[in-house]
Every structure is written in C-alpha cells, then in structure tokens.
Amino acid sequence: MAGISDLKWSSDFVSQTPGDNTEENFPRQVLNACWSHAIPSIVPNPKMIVWSKEMAKILKIDKIETDLLSGNNLCTGMAPYAQCYGGHQFGSWAGQLGDGRAITLGEINSEFGKLELQLKGSGTTPYSRFADGKSVLRSSIREFLCSEAMHHLGVPTTRALSLCTTGEMITRDVLYDGNPSAEEGAIVCRVAPSFIRFGSFQIHAFRGDIDSLRSLVNYTIKTHFSHINSSGDQLLIDWLKEVVESTASMIIHWMRVGFVHGVMNTDNMSIHGLTIDYGPYGWIENYDSHWTPNITDISTARYRFGQQSNIAGWNLARLLESISPLFNNTDELHNLMLHYDEYFSKEYENMWCKKLGILEYDAKLIEDLIQLFHENEVDMTIFFRKLAIINQSNFSSISESFYSGKLSQDWINWLTQYLEYIIPKREKIMNSINPKYVLRNWMVQLAIEKAENKDYSLLNELFEVIKLPYDEQFDFESKWYQKRPDWAKNKVGCSMLSCSS
Ligand code: AMP
Ligand code: MG
C-alpha cells in the first residue's frame, strides 16, 4: 500500500523561479517573487470524507493519509508554498491577489507529466489579505464534485484527490447581507500540472518587474511546453498560440455541456486551458444565454453563459499584453487575437454539428434553435438526449424537456427542417457528446445539505453518477435525469451563488 508520503516529491517551481525572502506569515505585498513559503495550519480534528480512486490511480497510490491531506503533517520532499499572482476582477485591475488559502505541497512526476498537489482551505498565507485562509464544507463539496464531474465529461479541468473536514467551525455570510453563520471547515486536495494563471504573469508586468516575468515565462515553457522547439519571439508566439487554442477549446467544452464558470477573472484562468477555481459556478438547466449563477455578477452579467467566449478573448488579450515586454517585435501578437476568433469559430461550429448530429454547420438552423430555447424555457441536457431519438412521425418526446409552453408550429417546423440535415446513426455520436447527467445546481445542493448533517450518502451517490455522464445509468434515471424541481428555481445555492466560500 502506497500513500502520498511514498511518492518521490520534487519542487521545480520553487527552485527555478524567484521566491520571497521573508519566511514569516503575515499579509503583505510580495515583490520580485513568484511564490512565498507557506506551511498549512494545524486543524483540530481532520476526517476524510471522500476521495477520488481515479485520481489516486494516476498518482499510483492506494492509501489515503488524512494527516498529510489535511495539512497536519508534511513528508520528506514536500516544499510547500503559496503562489503570487494578480488579476483583473470584473474587468478592473485588482493588484496582488495570490494564493490566499491554497498551499501547494509539491510536485510529482507522474506518467502523465508533472502534477502539483495543492491544499485549498489550509490557512493563511502572505496573500490572505483580510481573510482567514479557510474553506467551508459547502464550497469544498462543490469543488470536489464538479472538478471530477468535468473530468468525466471530457472537459479540461484541475482535478480533486480528496476532501476532508477539519473539525473547526468557520463563519461565513453566504449572501453578504449581514446574516453570518458558522459552517464546518474543509480542505480539498486538488491536482493539476500547475496552478499558474494568466494573473501569475500579469502581476510582474504591471509592476514592471521584467526579470520575474521572464523567469516565470522561461520556467513555464521549459517545464510545461517543452515540446516547442523554436526560439526568441517565435518561441513566445508558439507557446501563446497553444494557450489561445487550449483556452478556446475549454470554453467550447463549457458551451457544449452547459457550464457557467461565474468568475472568469484573469486570476481564474489557467495557463493550461484547464477549468480552475470552482466558486459560484452553475449549470444551465433551461437554456438561457443571459444566465449567470453569481449574485455578485447580476447587475452586468459580465460572466453570463453566452458571453464566456468574449470574456476568454478579453482575458487572453490581457495575457498577451503582459507578455509583450519580452518581445523584440510585437506585430505577431495581434495575429494571435485574430487566431483566437478564427479557431474558436471553427471549433464552435464543429461542436454544434456533433451536438446536433448533422454534417454541415448551418448558422440559421442554430440561431433559430437558440431563439426557440429562449421562447420556451427548454432544459438543455434533456433536450439534446431527446433530439437524438426523434423521427419524422414522433416529435412528442421533445416537449418533455420544456419547463413551459408546448410544441408549437414553430417547433414542428424547426424539427422537420432539422431531420433533413441529420447524418445516419446520429444517436450514438450525439449521446457521446451530449451528457445525460450533469451536476445540476440543485443536485449538489441536496448533497451539501445532507453532508452538513454528517450524512454523506448523497455525496457518494452523486460521485458515482457523474463518473458515467454519457451512459444511460437507468437506476439513476428517475432521480437525476430530471428537470430542475420547482423548489430549486429561486433557491440560494441552486439558482443564486455567491463567492462566499
Ligand atoms: P477566488 O474568488 O476564490 O478566486 O479568490 C480571489 C482571491 O481571494 C484569491 O487570491 C484567493 O486566494 C483569495 N481568497 C478567497 N477566499 C479566501 C479566504 N477565505 N482566505 C484568504 N484568501 C481568500
Ligand atoms: Mg481564484
């Protein structure tokens, strides 16, 4: 039996990028550094609640060491640190942010490449500002389940290895309305090639610290993009082109499965094109391009479902700006933004063809469908599974995906036209990219409410459901292949989420 203490740990990020000279843990501006030393806080009574066997298999471990995964102990080879980064929050430069409650334990060289193990919720760091460095059970369950759900859906994402409770009560004001309450603390151990973000580069560029910027760029390319073998400006272009493409692909996956991140600040954009930092995210139930799950975002809906590709483009522009001081000639950088638009459009059209089971993209067909979605309140997930099996003589099952309205003449016209476009045997193709089970907002909320009363049965059940999202899983159908129930329509945690976590 091997646990993480038996792994061979390395610490390339710490040894190859500039670090903070100060070792003490107090909030401060950290200059000329990519990271600060940080030791996880001791927690009173850690209990392992759930862990991912699939992630453990990748790490080649089969033993779960609660003392290490709660931060109560460290093992030989770990070099824990908190990363320094900045970010644009809701379109405005926010200055230094950094890992205020995340501590990377170290790196493992797995057969899938380098993987960082990071504890989220393990106490204050130099980047904690005014906050406590901790996480509550509610938000930890949301991160654990959703990152694993995304992985099984085939969406690029950071992963989760484990979730433990800490035995400590933490105060949070969920709706920011002056009604704080005590919630149980928890720690998620998450895993990714790295947790380097767009904001990791921005902070140095904004400070005019070109040495740290160059050091981080060199490290990132050498460590994570080592297959690129050009040099000079071309090396930077080739690297950034990959970031542009992986970011575009990630957003297209989000649009495919109906995921809304909710806080696409530049500090929440992974340099690997992975979905990162699961906060007030949500899942589209009735297809609504204007929906944002984040109550902080309600007034402008900057991070709404249908806006995600534009925001990713805006964030990429901020990344390119911050790398621009390293170029001799920046002309090519403009072409990268054009490349984003072209690449996104082409892949987005491909995605729609597969979703619909048609051979050629037809903009009008898809525009008309989206308009009908908005007129009728149609459940996105159920609709595409029903669409895969309709035929000329039977459209009726489509209306099972409607929250309101009925199968109008406009719908019949659209479906009739659609059937003229379909490819043979479309059901199999469509069902392999249109999931039957997604982590609907109310599903995870039900699991949280039970877990807060120490009943983890629903958490474990959902963890099983999300592992085979495209399969029929008939045993789960009547419970989880369902439209949003009425009680969830305007409920906190279901339709409305906050950043409080
Ligand atoms: P997020 O909204 O989770 O992306 O966090 C934005 C910034 O706030 C990051 O620098 C986080 O590390 C920091 N942060 C969020 N919650 C806490 C907390 N409870 N304690 C310390 N820092 C936090
Ligand atoms: Mg964040």
Q: Could you explain the architecture of this structure?
A:
- The structure is a single chain.
- This protein has 501 residues and is α+β, with helices and mostly antiparallel strands.
- It has 16 helices and 13 strands.
- A hairpin with a 2-residue loop joins strand 7 and strand 8.
- The chain is globular.
- The model has no long low-confidence stretch (mean pLDDT 97).
- Residues 97-101, 127-128, 131-134, 263, 268, 277, 279, 499 line the site of adenosine monophosphate.
Fill in the keyword field for this structure:
13 strands, 16 helices, alpha+beta, binds magnesium ion, 501 residues, two-stranded antiparallel ribbon, single chain, seven-stranded antiparallel sheet, binds adenosine monophosphate
Question: What's this, in brief?
Answer:
The chain is of the alpha+beta class and 501 residues long. Helix content is 39%, strand content 14%.
